Fold:
Amino acid sequence: MKKSRWAAIAATMLVAGASQAAVDRIEITERVPFAPGVKFGEAGEYEKLRGIAYFSLNPKASANLPIVDLKRAPRDKRGMVRFSSEFVLLRPASGKTGTLVYDVNNRGNIVVLGQLNGKAPKNNDPTTAEDAGDGFMMRHGFSMLFSAWTWDVAPSPAGVRPLVFKAPVVKGPRGMSANEFIVDAATEVASYAGLRGIGYEPATPNDPEAVLTERTRQGDMRRPVERNRWEFVAPEQPGGPGRIKLQGGFQPGTIYEVRYEAKDPRVTGAGLAGIRDLLAYFRENQVEGASLPKTVLMFGYSQSARLIGRMLHDGLNLDEQGRMVFDGALLEVPGAGGSGGFNSRFVQVTRHPSMLEEHDYPTDSFPFTSTPTRDPVTGRVASTLDHAKDKHGRVPKLLIANTSAEFWNRGASLLTTAPDGVGDAAPAPNVRVYGLMGAQHYVGRSPTRAPFTACVSPTNYYLPLRALMLALDGWTSKGTPPPASAYPRLEDGTLVSVEAYRKAFPAVPGLTPPEQNLREPRLDHGARFLSQGIADMVPAAQKMAFETRVPAPDADGNDRGGVRLVEMQAPLGTHTGWNLRAPETGFAWATSRYDGSFVPFARTEAERKAANDPRPSLQARYANRDAFIAATRAAAARQVAARLLLQEDVERTVTERAGLYDRILARDPADQSCNYLLPNQ
Structure:
């Protein structure tokens, strides 16, 4: 069992996939102890397996018809499209698989360990006890599977090798590619690829017919830049994102867009099919003597959560025999869900819309809700689960969790409202939706405000996610219902227009609410896009925007409705889901893609009055430190009772909050840095 990496490669084990035609075989290239010598509670020791899965897809199979361009991909003598994917498996060394969790990597990077395992370091080849963090997923007996599914991932820093998928390539087809980008500071050379992506290169080197335009706002007319003023330049490093050099330089406050003809599209949807078929294989076949999983779950964060949404939208949660390949999924911060991306010609899955760039990129499109709703513009009636049912009418159980930031920056309200923003739309019986109020897209800290106007929100929503992961496991494996949905609603006034939000928001020093949130347009890519995934209009025509709403603020400026996290129940300040861009970066009216804001309460009533702050001070709210800790502990107890916080995480929550309380009290109000957000500062 404890073979070295190179010994394992020399004696490669081939495992035939007789019961699953889509997986020809898997090849185990490494089997070693994970975190040697560490026992994770009752689950005991863990091991790591690395391998390669070899796939062959039948383009004529009904289950594969949704995969764009699969019929045009190169085929072998049997008429099959062949490709492979690297995978990593962490599991109990005892061979008891229990629940298998597939972590959809985000831009090539493993996510679940860093978010649910308590500050585990970023590592796509987890090996040591440090890589396990606090061991949460292991202590609860989960096996974890990771594989490559996306091709457009830029090279990562040294030591962090991403999981990159080599997608089948269709030779011949050409099509237009449009890339929007901005810069935060003046620069002569800029990348035009998506976030940490690489994108398609021009079919003709330094394409003389390519067009570069500029404008100030999305609705403005595009102004062409003279072709002799700019040129394509080589990536900064091999395999890196494409770049453009502009005479006079790119400037903040301008939206740039470059359009050119691309060629030889990748069959990006094959990556989704690879996930499907790998899960089907592990459900039906023993691997190196381990038991078959009783339950299979998926976990996705942001981009990778949207990918799960796309799989459901296209019915790629069902294998070639029509069986569900996963029983449930936890979708973390997917925004409006992502049913528009991941499976079309010339798609680049690292891209997604913001208030500024990629506004006309096919990422979010109708339908958004898990129950049928009607688009009043097109008249179409649909839901996200229309193609996800197996032959018995079953669909996976889904937990969807968005933060306040997704309501401002990613259209999250569309998951539970009609497309015109009039009327709530309750989730389907197999779906729970949670709004994690006061949190931002990621949990992070920064000692500076730049490139924004306020300090970022310190709300830690990863701890409630641990509770939701166990709730999903209980729901799928034992039938135990998870916590009820909790999200802002129109009917009770906790979900409102931006105009209403601005009127209700208190005059918090240093915070001025944005003039708008992200209102994503209905995009017209041409007649073939909906049925064939081929865009004939690039950039797309922008039609009437979907109506998106935001959580209503309370008297402190904290969001109402949804899941009232401990930070909201025993607050130390105002947490918002938006953060305005600093004027020097351009677009001072626009919000960050991901970040919220935090402004602490004044320490004393005297300081509050001097700052003309309408919010009661900490002194007025809590008699002393012990009173604050008591309020925090009581809030944590309510969250435990609601099954939105684990008992094992109560002390960590209290300790984190007490530390922030201490740092706020020690902070000089004249200090405009954000150092106090960092522990031990």
